[in-house]
Amino acid sequence: MSEAENPPRRAPRWAWTAIVWGVVYALDQITKALAVAHLEPGAVQPFVGELLQFHLIRNPGAAFSFATGATWIFTILAAAVVVVVVRMARKLRSLPWALAFGFLLAGATGNLTDRLVREPGFARGHVVDFLQLPHWPIFNVADAGICVAAVFIAVLALRGVGLDGRRESRQQQESGAEGA
C-alpha cells in the first residue's frame, strides 16, 4: 500500500493532553518532595540571585493565600476541574487546546494531590509552595502550569480557535458578540 492509501497515524489530541499532564505533574510532585526534604520552612534561599529564590511555605488557601479557611472548597473545585478537563479532552481536535488542557490538568491535579495527602488531613491538606520571584507571591510548578494554561486559553479564545481547531472569522466573532 502506498502512503496515500494508508496515511501515517497521528496521536489523538487527548494523548498530547496526557503527555503534558504527565510531565508537568511529575515535575510538580518531584520538586515539592525535594523542597520539603531540603528547605527550611520560611527561610529564603537564593537560587538565581534575587530573580528566583526558594522559600518554603504551606498554603491552606488558593492562589496568593486567598481564602485560607476554605481549603475543602478548593479541594472540591480542583476535583471538578479535573473531571471536566478529562471529559472535554477526549473530544479535542486542536493541538494547542490539548496542550492547554494538559497544563491545566497538571496544575489542578498537582495541587489536588497536596490537598488530599498532606497535613492537616484528607481534603484539607496544605499546598507546598516554594518558588519566589520578586514582587510575586510564592508558588509551585502546578501553579505555573495553571498560569501557562490560562495564557494558552486566553490566546486561543482571542484568536477564535475552537476546541475542534477551527478558527472563527472576525465577522463570526463580532456577530456572536452582538447577539449576546
Any chance you could write out the topology, listing elements then pairs?
Layout: H1 13-38, E1 44-48, E2 52-59, H2 71-89, H3 95-117, E3 127-132, H4 141-158, H5 170-179
Antiparallel strand pairs: 1-2, 2-3
Pfam family, one: Peptidase_A8
Active site: 129, 143
GO cellular component, one term: plasma membrane
Explain what this protein looks like in three dimensions:
The protein is mainly alpha-helical. The chain has one domain. It is built from 5 helices and 3 strands. It has a 3-stranded antiparallel beta sheet with strand order 1-2-3. The longest helix is centred in the first third of the chain and has 26 residues, at 13-38. It is globular. The N and C termini lie far apart (51 Å). The model has no long low-confidence stretch (mean pLDDT 87).
Order of helices and strands: HEEHHEHH
Total of domains: 1
Low-confidence stretches: none
Strand content: 5-15%
Q: Pairing-aware structural class of the strands and helices?
A: mainly alpha
How many strands, what sense, and barrel or not for the largest sheet?
Answer: 3 strands, antiparallel
How many DSSP-defined strands?
Answer: 3
Question: What key phrases describe this protein's structure?
Answer:
180 residues; mainly alpha; three-stranded antiparallel β-sheet; 11% strand; protease
In short:
The chain is mostly helical.
